[in-house]
Design a protein that fits this description.
485 residues; alpha+beta; 5-stranded mixed β-sheet; 3-stranded antiparallel β-sheet; 17 strands; disordered N terminus; hydrolase; aminopeptidase; EC 3.4.11.9; X-Pro_dipept-like; protease
Length: 485
C-alpha cells in the first residue's frame, strides 16, 4: 500500500491536507505544485442516465415529505470508519439514506427543506477533489488515492436531486430555523450542527417512519431481492463443489468461496457468513469460521449475497459434508423441514405476522414430545416455552436492505402486525442440541439444523424466492451428488 505525500504550506491555504508523520517526501516544491495543476483532460460525464431506482426513490421522498410537512428533514449517509491507524473499513451507506436517494457515497446528506407546498430536496455531497490546492493527489481521500468521485452536476443527473457541496452544510444547519428532524447515529458532524434544534423523541419518530416505509417492498426492491437470492443459490453451489478442499483446510475455505461469489456478482455479503461445521452449528451466529470440516458431520451454511443496491438475501441450508445424512441427522433435519413447511404455509396476506412462527414452533414442540425430550402435552410445552431450550430463536424476520430489515418499526406494525402483499420475510426454524446438553441422548449432542428461505407475500399466498435450492433431505443429497459428479 503506497504512502501519501505530506502536506506543504502551499497546499493548506484553504484547508489543511492530512499527512503521514513518517512520509518519505519532506515537501512539495513550488514547481511540482504548479505542474500538478495543469495538463489534465476534461473527464466530466455529461450523458449519464438516472439510476434504475430513481423513480422509486422520488416516490419515497414524496411520501416522507407528506408525513412531515413544514419540517426540515436531514438524512445522512454516514462517514468512513477507521479500521486501524489510517486505514478504513469499506464504506456502507446508511440504509435510510440509500433508500431515499440511490446514492451510496460517504459523507452525503439528504436535506428536505420545507416549502409552502412540500419540500425542496438537496443532496449534499463532496464534489470532485480539488486540483488547485492539490487535494486530488496530496490528500489520502483524493482522487488519485481512492478513485474519482462524481461531480455535483453528474450526481444531479444520476439521482434526480439538486446537489450542493456538503462542506457548506454544517453552517447552513447551524443557521436553520424552525422544526428539524435528523436520522441519528451516522454523522456526528451533522448532529453537532443541529444539537440545539432537535429532540431525541422527534428524531426517533423519523427513524420509525423510515423503517416502516420499508415493510412493503416495491417492484424494484422485489427484483433486487430476487437477484440477491439467485446469486446466493450459486454461492451455495460453489461451496458444495469445494467441500473436499474445506475438509483439507477449515470453515474459512467455505467462507472465502461464498465471499468470492458475493463480490463477483454483488456488492458484498449481506452479513458475516455463518459457516458452521459439526457442533459449531449449535452456535447461532458462528462467524469465526475457523473450525474443522469433517466427513460425517453437518455443515450449517447461513449466508447471503448483497446486491450493488444493498438488498441482501438470507438463506440457510444444513448439508451433510459427505453428501449423505446419517439416520439421526436425517431424523432431526426432517423435523425441521416439516416445521418450515408449516411456517411457509402460514405466510399469506391477512395472516398475523406471528402465525408462521407459531406454526413452526408447534411442529418442533410436537417432535420434542414425541422423542421424549420434554414432557407433554404440547400445549403445556408451548405455553411455558419449554421447546426453546432446543429451538432458541424466532422463526424469521423482515428482509430487505438490512438482513434484519425494518428493525425500528413499531411492534404493532411489525411483530404485532398483519402480513401484506409485498412484504418479504425469512422462515427459518431450527433445532440445536448442544454438545454439552446432558438432557438429551448422546447421539443428539452436537447436531444443529436450520433451514431458511426468503418468502415474498403475494396477493394469493406466497412465493419462495430461494426455491432454487432444494430443501427436502433426499433432494439435498441428490443435488449435492450432481454438483460433485
Amino acid at each position: 500500500m503506497a504512502e501519501e505525500l505530506p502536506e506543504t504550506p502551499e497546499t493548506t491555504e484553504e484547508e489543511p491536507i492530512k499527512q503521514r508523520k513518517n512520509g518519505l517526501y519532506p515537501g512539495v516544491s513550488d514547481e511540482l505544485a504548479e505542474n500538478m495543476k495543469s495538463g489534465w483532460a476534461d473527464t466530466e460525464l455529461r450523458d449519464l442516465e438516472p439510476v434504475e431506482q430513481a423513480e422509486h426513490t422520488a416516490r419515497r421522498r414524496a411520501a416522507l415529505s407528506a408525513r412531515f410537512p413544514g419540517e426540515r428533514l436531514v438524512i445522512p449517509a454516514g462517514n468512513l470508519k477507521t479500521r486501524s491507524n489510517d486505514t478504513e473499513y469499506p464504506f456502507r451507506s446508511a440504509v435510510e439514506y440509500a433508500y431515499l436517494t440511490g446514492n451510496q457515497t460517504e459523507d452525503g446528506v439528504l436535506v428536505l427543506e420545507p416549502t409552502a407546498d412540500g419540500h425542496q430536496e438537496t443532496l449534499y455531497l463532496l464534489p470532485r477533489s480539488d486540483r488547485e490546492n492539490g487535494e486530488f493527489w496530496l490528500s489520502g481521500q483524493g482522487e488519485l488515492w481512492v478513485g474519482r468521485r462524481h461531480s455535483l452536476a453528474e450526481a444531479e443527473l444520476l439521482y434526480g436531486i439538486a446537489a450542493s457541496d456538503v462542506r457548506e452544510l454544517p453552517r447552513k444547519l447551524k443557521e436553520a430555523t424552525g422544526p428539524v428532524r435528523v436520522v441519528r447515529g451516522y454523522d456526528t458532524g451533522v448532529e453537532a450542527a443541529l444539537t440545539d434544534k432537535v429532540t431525541a423523541e422527534r428524531d426517533e419518530e423519523l427513524r420509525v417512519f423510515l423503517s416502516e416505509m420499508r415493510l412493503v417492498k416495491d417492484e424494484f426492491e422485489i427484483g433486487e431481492l430476487q437477484k440477491a437470492v439467485d446469486s446466493t443459490v450459486r454461492g451455495f453451489e460453489d461451496v458444495v463443489r469445494v467441500l473436499d478442499k474445506a475438509e483439507a483446510t477449515s470453515e474459512r475455505y467455505i467462507e472465502g468461496t461464498f465471499f468470492l461469489r458475493a463480490r463477483v456478482e454483488g456488492n458484498d455479503v449481506g452479513y458475516g457468513s455463518i459457516c458452521a461445521a459439526g457442533p459449531h452449528a449449535c452456535t447461532l451466529h458462528w462467524v469465526r469460521n475457523d473450525g474443522p470440516v469433517r466427513s460425517g458431520d453437518l455443515l450449517l451454511l447461513d449466508a447471503g449475497v448483497e446486491t450493488h443496491t444493498l438488498y441482501t438475501a438470507d438463506v440457510t441450508r444444513t448439508l451433510p459434508v459427505n453428501g449423505t445424512y446419517s439416520e439421526i441427522q436425517r431424523k432431526i433435519y426432517d423435523a425441521v423441514y416439516e416445521a418450515q413447511e408449516a411456517g411457509i404455509a402460514a405466510v399469506k396476506p391477512g395472516a398475523k405476522y406471528r402465525d408462521f412462527h407459531d406454526a413452526a414452533q408447534r411442529v418442533l414442540a410436537e417432535k420434542l414430545v414425541e422423542w421424549g425430550l420434554v414432557e407433554g402435552p404440547v400445549e403445556r410445552v408451548l405455553e411455558l416455552g419449554l421447546q426453546r431450550r432446543w429451538t432458541l430463536h424466532g422463526t424469521g424476520h423482515m428482509l430487505g436492505m438490512d438482513v434484519h430489515d425494518c428493525a425500528a418499526a413499531r411492534t404493532e406494525a411489525y411483530v404485532g402486525g398483519t402480513l401484506e402483499p409485498g412484504m418479504v420475510l425469512t422462515v427459518e426454524p431450527g433445532l440445536y442440541f448442544q454438545a454439552d446438553d446432558l438432557t438429551v441422548p448422546e447421539e443428539y449432542r452436537g447436531i444443529g439444523v436450520r433451514i431458511e428461505d426468503d418468502i415474498l407475500v403475494t396477493q394469493d399466498g406466497n412465493r419462495n424466492l430461494s426455491a432454487g435450492l432444494p430443501r427436502r433431505s433426499d433432494e439435498v443429497e441428490t443435488w449435492m451428488a450432481s454438483l460433485k459428479s
